[in-house]
């Protein structure tokens, strides 16, 4: 395990206090963010940015999400220890590591092959044992569902039908939906086989969701 110093732990405590002031109330989520060493998801030259509440580029046109956004989405999911969670957009692996603090049953899919391989190695080095896949997350993982919770970490033009189909009755999908530049966070709860309840929440700005049910395939 790479270094996680007393200074880093202190920076996380400060970050958690900031997130609490910004309205994050779920103590399990705050504990998860206070546990995961975010600096280890950055290249060494940029680790000074790790505990600022901001997104940061990680290459391949992607970013590591702002800690507030990670906390906000995770709190909306309401993850229980027994839940099977599907994450669409592994990215740096940071959100995945936070989810693993809440349940060991995390499945995560990344569209970009270069980013997937880099993040697979990083999570292995940190002993974070998620089920990782490289492919089109906009269609989910039909061979591995249903899932109790589904989290989408990229902005989508619509709610992909495949993700709704892979959601267990009683489960919740959290997804930012809108244009390529700004999205509204949605939480969709499946109340029955055919019944879904949709809540519209705050506005955010995510990188675009690529794939069949996203913004297509881009070079």
From TrEMBL:
Could you list this entry's UniProt keywords, alphabetically sorted. Answer: Cytoplasm, Methyltransferase, S-adenosyl-L-methionine, Transferase
Q: Which InterPro entries does this UniProt record tie to the protein? A: PCMT, SAM-dependent_MTases_sf
* Listed Pfam families: PCMT
Active site (UniProt): 65
Task: Show the catalytic activity.
Answer: [protein]-L-isoaspartate + S-adenosyl-L-methionine = [protein]-L-isoaspartate alpha-methyl ester + S-adenosyl-L-homocysteine
Q: Which compartment or compartments is the protein found in? A: Cytoplasm
Q: Does the keyword Translocase apply?
A: no
What enzyme category does the UniProt record give?
A: transferase
This entry's Enzyme Commission designation comes to: 2.1.1.77
HAMAP family named among the record's database cross-references? PIMT
What does this protein's UniProt record list under function? Catalyzes the methyl esterification of L-isoaspartyl residues in peptides and proteins that result from spontaneous decomposition of normal L-aspartyl and L-asparaginyl residues. It plays a role in the repair and/or degradation of damaged proteins.
Q: Which family does it belong to?
A: Belongs to the methyltransferase superfamily. L-isoaspartyl/D-aspartyl protein methyltransferase family.
**What is the protein name stated in its UniProt record?**
Protein-L-isoaspartate O-methyltransferase
Q: Supply the gene name.
A: pcm
